[in-house]
Amino acid sequence: MKILLITLCMASSFLVAQPHHFGPGHEKARMMKKWKLIEYLDLNEEQSEKFFLRVTTLEKELKAFHKKERAIREDLHDLLDAEEVDGEKARKLIGEYFDLKLEISELLKHHHQGINDILSDEQQIKYALFEHQFKKKMKDEWFDKKGKWGKGKP
After folding, report:
1. What's the gap between Cα 48 and its chain centre?
2. CA distances from 45 to 10, 80, 101 (A)
3. pLDDT tens track for 116-142
4. Is residue 134 part of a domain?
5. 119 burial class (0-12, 13-18, 19+ CB within 10 angstroms)?
């Protein structure tokens, strides 16, 4: 357990040293997510090392996909800002956008199917459900702090 904590501390110090694209709150949420994932899946030290190597690889691949997705969305916004919408270009970009979404889904599916050499069946189920549960919990906490419309509580 001590080695696991040392590994996590080293990983967190590495992550904190990286440039923050979304501000410190985003990085804090990422670290909290990792801690909750370790706790929720009840990972042992060996599992944790192997698991997070795979997750890091997945995150890098997803980052590339999200960069492409963002570029397509920007192009779509540019079309809306034009005097007249180019229908052919719009259909092409929309097709690319949804093709990219399919690729992301396939990547996630492949990742989850390939994790069975690290996680038990029960852990795999928990992992498949974790992202949704974590986002819901974070959103609920944010709404509790900010109020329904984000104005903040007095």
Report:
1. 18
2. 14, 51, 34
3. 999 999 999 999 999 888 888 888 877
4. yes
5. buried
